[in-house]
Fold this sequence. Notes:
Layout: E1 10-12, E2 27-32, E3 36-41, H1 45-49, H2 54-62, H3 67-81, E4 90-94, H4 100-108, E5 113-118, H5 121-130, E6 137-140, H6 148-157, E7 161-164, H7 175-183, E8 190-196, H8 207-216, E9 221-233, E10 239-249, H9 257-262
Parallel strand pairs: 4-5, 4-7, 5-6, 7-8
Antiparallel strand pairs: 1-2, 2-3, 8-10, 9-10
Helix pairs in contact: 3-4
Amino acid sequence: xxxxxxxxxxxxxxxxxxxxxxxxxxxxxxxxxxxxxxxxxxxxxxxxxxxxxxxxxxxxxxxxxxxxxxxxxxxxxxxxxxxxxxxxxxxxxxxxxxxxxxxxxxxxxxxxxxxxxxxxxxxxxxxxxxxxxxxxxxxxxxxxxxxxxxxxxxxxxxxxxxxxxxxxxxxxxxxxxxxxxxxxxxxxxxxxxxxxxxxxxxxxxxxxxxxxxxxxxxxxxxxxxxxxxxxxxxxxxxxxxxxxxxxxxxxxxxxxxxxxxxxxxx
Length: 266
């Protein structure tokens, strides 16, 4: 999976004494214009997407990210189990970025319709620049406060599948944004996403972690696959493990589910 037009960058990771940072704090340097050193965090997606091919070089070539392929394979396996064709899915790809998951869904699995969504315009621009034939449409929107116009457009697509890969947690997609997207999926539709393994640990009492745990074990999702796998490597070359989950949305979810799930335990 590589953007249509790519450049190779001089990427330098920081010294070992900086490697004890949290995953969303990790940074690297690139050398531009021969000598200019630019510091970029792994989660500075706007800066990464401005540079064609940098995302792929960093996360896929160097750090061996496997998540789009893994989640796509599990989604198709779940639909095969349910005797439903993946080619009939109308997918909302939340946190779509520059289209890595979208490319897998469209080119490898042949979904019927595919709409990307991200909060930054740089993501949409990079997707259309690098993968112009992948998405049927692409929303640049804050899913914590969708405009009525965006809600109407989303309803017109009649989504029956939500995907979100390498985007949940760390503040990139808040629980409310994911919940809003989930509410756009028709009952009996599908949900496929991945999360860092610690988010399923009860010792993690963040709102996002509580919400995901409550959702997985609720009556509103029928889980088909939950698999621990190597998401990618760390800067040191150690494996970072995530869970990939595929489930069917069994019915509409009450609007107060998110509030109750994220409530601080008394």
